[in-house]
Amino acid sequence: MSKPVNQRAWLLVVPVVICVSFSAVLPLMTVVNYSVQDIIGPEQRVFVGTEWFRSVLRDEELHGALLRQVIFSLCVLLAQIPLGIGLALAMPEKGWRASASLVVLAMPLLIPWNVVGTIWQIYARPDIGLAGRALNRLGLSYNYTGNSVDAWLTVLVMDVWHWTPLVALLCYAGLRAIPDAYYQAARIDGASRLAVFRYIQLPKLRGVLMIAVLLRFMDSFMIYTEPFVLTGGGPGNATTFLSEYLTQKAVGQFDLGPAAAFSLVYFLIILLFCFVLYNWMQRVGAGGPDSAAGTGGGTGGPHG
Fold first, then answer.
1. Residue 293 or residue 118, greater confidence
2. Which helix H or strand E contains 207, and what residues bound it?
3. Does some domain include residue 45?
4. Segments forming the whole domain that contains residue 197
5. Which residues contact 230 (CB under 8 A, 6 or more apart)?
6. From 68's CA, which of 57, 92, 151, 278 has a CA 20 to 30 Å away?
């Protein structure tokens, strides 16, 4: 005779289900409802089917914003992942220096997003800003309010300054989790620092780096507050990313139907990119670093 199972533990999940319903499911259903209607007034709505989706997908401004967003997110990953790994490797392993380094490194993460934009808005001003005046004195003719390239690069540098500490903290935690036996074997084999990094540290950081890449890609793909405060999407549309484009549709033009359709397309684009990125990283990790690290006692052939 089987022992009866107590299912009352599922009651603990009920508050979570209720919170998720109010914070995610219900707003999503509202957006889906708006995306298939033409909202003329508070009580006047016309069902239009997929018309808004077709018009949004044909929008050339959307194509330009999507291209800028993809390039920006890729540049963010290319800059922040190596910098984060380098900072984590350079930090002390233990003692008060390690604690002080962690506190100083985490300080940019504590600053609100709108304050970050304000700080860099002042810092990069060509007339009174420390960085702007220094670049102009070097003869670079820097002006992020009038030059699209300067504005785009300023937003990129600002994001790198703000979020590289997150990658560094994740990598630092991953490095501290590596057992000391691996380093002892490397010292016995006479492996160089580069060999230790390539065959021990980097493979063991694969899971942490996967989390860092996914987090930073999703967050950079939804960036809004910092460039809005710093440049307002300009000059022109140089820093008008997808979130800024959506805000202009929903708030600036009050086109709720097209804005709802675009928000669903935006959501699906993020899911698609994250799915492709995650699967690609899983395949690369399964066939690469760990298999190399598993041979030769973790250090392989390079020595000296």
1. 118
2. helix 206-221
3. no
4. 59-254
5. 117, 120, 121, 124, 144, 151, 154, 155, 158, 239
6. 278
